[in-house]
Design brief:
The protein has a single domain, classed as Ureohydrolase domain (Arginase, Chain A), CATH 3.40.800.10. The protein has 11 helices and 8 strands. An 8-stranded parallel sheet has the order 2-1-3-8-7-4-5-6, sandwiched between helices. Helix 6 links the parallel strand 4 and strand 5. The longest helix has 20 residues.
Length: about 350
């Protein structure tokens, strides 16, 4: 009899916890954009993630999840961008898409929702971070979860692919290293590098390494993850970029931050990366802060690898996203907390 009472009391505690679950309003925005890099297929990432059941799985996290899917953005190339910028491939497309993206992200956040942006290649980070900055009057911090630093300018990039440049375009400290960029007047580099932290780095160009060291950018490579553990690394990152624990957090999560065995279907995979468990843990910790304002999930390319590779990569992306919005690895919380105890089948604890 005592066991029955304990189980019933435990269930009442669970019900009270469920009723205090905070409401989470999410706005999903797809950006089927691939002009920031040369590999075909990454534009299909947003729809592939949706098709795998993202919305349904998000809705199942708890009762107070409120989801609005805004669909995929479209854009018109700005015809006023006549002059090409040297060593920035598809510049007119990048500038035009990100301008429209920034508007959409700003609107979604001002509507009171956390903006979840599905890419597309990582050049879309220009627009997502810009929109978040504008919606919060510049008071944000940024976690860039990536194998790469994305800190090249058009003068230093070995490829001219803009998905390797978004952080350099956003950082106020690097504004003087750029020429005038026609059609980019809507985006001002006001993000201080002091409010940015990298996690997962392991493929960094020599110029990017120089910038990180010279400017003292908070950057945790895989050696720090191994030495300190992912939980300590996330805490150290937040201590540096949000010491007062008040800023809206933007997480830009490149799927190639995960080891290529975990997420093979991506354009620039690098071995020796984060495990899926570590990627999930990062987002669980960010969720617990209660300050996630926007998240990007980018560089899932369903056109690369076998069917099983694609499935594994998309599943990894969904696991990371679910963790950002409250999914617990201890088990999903009940949608209906009013179920009477007797509806559950007898167990060893209830049988006398």
């Amino acid at each position: 009899m005592l066991r029955k009472v304990r189980l019933r009391n435990g269930f009442e505690v669970l019900k009270r916890y469920l009723h205090t679950e905070r409401e989470t309003k999410i706005g999903i925005l797809g950006v089927p954009f691939d002009k920031g890099q040369p590999k075909v297929g990454v534009a299909n990432g947003p729809d592939a993630i949706r098709k795998a059941g993202l919305v349904e799985q998000l809705a199942g996290i708890h009762k107070k999840i409120n989801i609005k899917d805004y669909g995929n953005i479209t854009y018109q190339v700005n015809e006023e961008i006549e002059k090409k910028v040297p060593n920035m491939r598809e510049y007119a497309h990048v500038a035009s898409c990100n301008q429209e993206l920034s508007r959409n992200v700003e609107k979604i956040i001002k509507d009171g929702r956390i903006c979840l942006t599905l890419g597309g290649d990582h050049s879309i980070g220009i627009g997502t971070v810009d929109g978040h900055i504008k919606s919060k009057n510049e008071d944000i911090c940024l976690l860039w979860i990536d194998a790469h630093a994305d800190l090249n300018t058009n003068k230093t990039s070995p490829s001219g692919n803009v998905h390797g440049m978004p952080m350099a375009l956003l950082a106020s400290e690097l504004a003087d290293y750029w020429p005038y960029l026609p059609g980019m007047d809507w985006q001002q580099p006001v993000m201080s590098i002091r409010n940015v932290a990298y996690i997962g780095l392991r493929s960094v160009d020599s110029y990017e390494r120089l910038v990180i060291d010279k400017l003292g950018i908070t950057a945790f490579g895989m050696d720090e993850v191994e030495n300190y553990g992912i939980g300590t690394v996330v805490n150290m990152a937040l201590d540096r970029i949000d010491p007062e624990r008040r800023r809206s957090i933007h997480v830009s999560f490149d799927i190639d931050s995960l080891d290529s065995l975990e997420a093979p279907s991506t354009g620039t995979p690098v071995r020796g990366g984060l495990t899926l468990r570590e990627g999930v843990h990062i987002m669980e910790m960010i969720y617990k802060t209660g300050r996630l304002g926007a998240m990007d999930l980018v560089e899932v390319n369903p056109g690369i690898g076998s069917e099983q590779d694609v499935k594994r990569t998309i599943e990894a992306a969904i696991h990371v996203i679910l963790a950002a919005f409250g999914h617990s690895r201890k088990g999903l919380r009940l949608k209906d907390a009013s179920l009477p105890l007797q509806t559950f089948p007898p167990t060893r604890q209830t049988i006398q």
